[in-house]
Amino acid sequence: MGIRALLVSLLLPGIVVLLVLDSWNDYRTLVQVTSDAYDNSLLEPARVLESSVEFAQDLTLRVSAPVYAQVLLESRAGLRKYFRIEEIDPPVMPGGTRVPPQGRTLLGMPDLPRPGIWPMVAGEPYFYDGVYRNDPVRGVAIWRDLYYQGAHRQVLVLVAESTGPRQAAEERAWRQEFLRDGRMVGLVVLLVWVGVALALRPLHRLRKEVRERSPDDLEPLDADRVPIEVAPLVDAVNHHIARYRDMLAEQSDFLADASHQMRTPLAIMLTQAQYALRERDPERMREGLQALIEQLKRTRRLTEQLLTLAHASHDEAAAKQDVDLTALAHAAVLHYLPLAREKRQDLGWQDARAPGLRHANTVLGNADELREALSNLIHNAIHYTPRGARITVSIEADACSVCLVVVDNGPGLAPELRERAFARFERVGAGKDESGSGLGLAIARAYARRNGGDIELGDGEPNDQGSVGLRAILRLPLAKQAAQAATSQTSG
To answer: Does residue 162 share a domain with residue 24?
Structure first.
């Protein structure tokens, strides 16, 4: 559903209901005002006729209606008035609500309908509805006591008129209200339609601008030219464009670095192969082929690391589950133990957790990615420390996080160079092996961050050269269940 249709469907029912209620109130008020006006037009001739009844010399009643009373009672087109003056004899005693008895007609229409039960209060008008000669009428009745020389008479003055003009006036008022409300609803729909069209113009311009862009144009969209309500959406699109731009730049840098790193070993292997082909001595040819095999091994590891780094740098993380870091660290240490023995290095395991937190070693992550991160830390320690060095892998935990620690007593790394060590293809620090690729720490940090953690570098153990080695800490947040259990044990 479009915005126009949605706004109209949301606003129109409420507006219609409000207009109907407002029109109904206006109509009832107009009907009341009209009824009061017509009732007052009935009351005036009734008062005149009431005052025109008087005693004659013989104490009988007579009616001497003035001329203007006759004018008020004359029939006009669309307005018919009827009247009757009757004498009630004997007089009715006042008090209570009753039906007045039939009296003698002094003047007017004898069959003019009278009101039913009504409070007979002298001088107080009483309005009623009736039918006279198949004509709906509205009437007013006035009861009056007359006294003269001890004589007591009562008269009932009735004046009625056709309700046709009233109904016509009410119908006209209703039609006017209906037409006015219809115009109002139509105007609201038109304003909503035009208003949405005007409000969407900046979006149409933005759509045209995006469509006319070249594929490599990744500049952010202008959020100042769109409505305030749409600005968050444009900001989100700009955020996505910025992430995509950064990803493309990172991929471009990665491809450039990878091609540069692969060019050197390929050139070396080509030279070694050509050298082996030129040799006639089988022993020297064998040496050349052996060197070629070693270079192929290094190139294969470089290729594997490049693929691993490409996977680790991807934003979408793999499926996560509870991972026991103790078992993962044990397996990693056993896997690299033969490599450490080749360099006569002491690779060992130490559980440095506090006794009360020995169960808190479970994290929510991907086991393969965490194993790769820890393996790179251990491999780096073995690769960059000299023969006879000591390397210790341990696990530490507190109430919120768990740490896998790889510490050595090798040449270490200056504090100002430690952050640079995480850059791709960076081989920094004293004692670095030029044959390395400089990807181990970059891969480890990428996998750590994909699993909600990070890697820190600090001072390791002291060595014989008077310096300290390197301490690599893989810090990960505890799984929720393990963190709650650790907190409860600590508080207990």
So the answer is: yes
3-state secondary structure (DSSP) of residue 118: strand
User: What pTM was computed for the model?
Assistant: 0.47
What's the CA gap between 120 and 38, in Å, rounded? Answer: 22
Domain boundary among 246, 279, 312: 312
308 and 326 belong to one structural domain: no
d(CA 324, CA 360): 9
Taking residue 478's Cβ as centre, other Cβ atoms within 10 Å add up to 24
Residue 381 lies in a domain: yes
Instruction: Grade residue 76 by pLDDT with cuts at 50, 70 and 90.
Output: very low
Q: Are residues 144 and 250 in the same domain?
A: no
Least confident range of 19-33, 84-98, 205-219, 268-282: 84-98
Give the residue-averaged pLDDT of 70-87.
66
73 contacts 45 by C-beta, under 8 angstroms: yes
As a whole number, mean pLDDT of residues 341-349 equals 90
| Radius of gyration from C-alpha coordinates of the chain | 53
Quick one: pLDDT band at residue 315, thresholds 50, 70, 90?
Answer: low
* Same-domain check for residues 32 and 118: yes
Domain span at 304: 231-312
Nearest-CA neighbor of 291 among 435, 156, 388, 120?
Answer: 435
The most confident of 32-36, 61-65, 99-103, by mean pLDDT = 32-36
Residues 467-475 have a mean pLDDT of 90
Among 145, 170, 195, the domain boundary falls at: 170
CA 187, 192, 196 angle in degrees (round to 5)? 150
| 122 assigned to some structural domain | yes
CA distances from residue 171 to 79, 167, 179, 222 in whole angstroms, order as listed: 16, 6, 12, 57
13 with 70, same domain?
yes
Domain holding 351: CATH number? Answer: 3.30.565.10
Burial 208-234 (b: 16+ CB within 10 A, else e): eeeeeeeeeeeeebebeebeeebeeeb
**CA 332, CA 405: separation in Å to the nearest integer?**
12
Q: What per-residue string of b and e applies to 254-270 under the rule 16 or more CB within 10 Å gives b?
A: beebbeebeeebeeebe
Mark whether 277 and 337 lie in a shared domain.
no
pLDDT tens for 140-166 read 998 888 888 878 888 888 999 888 888
With bands split at pLDDT 50, 70 and 90, how would you rate the model's confidence at 430?
very low
Residues 273 and 343 in one domain: no
Please give the average per-residue pLDDT across 395-424, as a whole number: 85
Residue 451 in domain: yes
Domain count along the chain: 3
- CA torsion 269-274-278-281 (nearest 10°) is 10
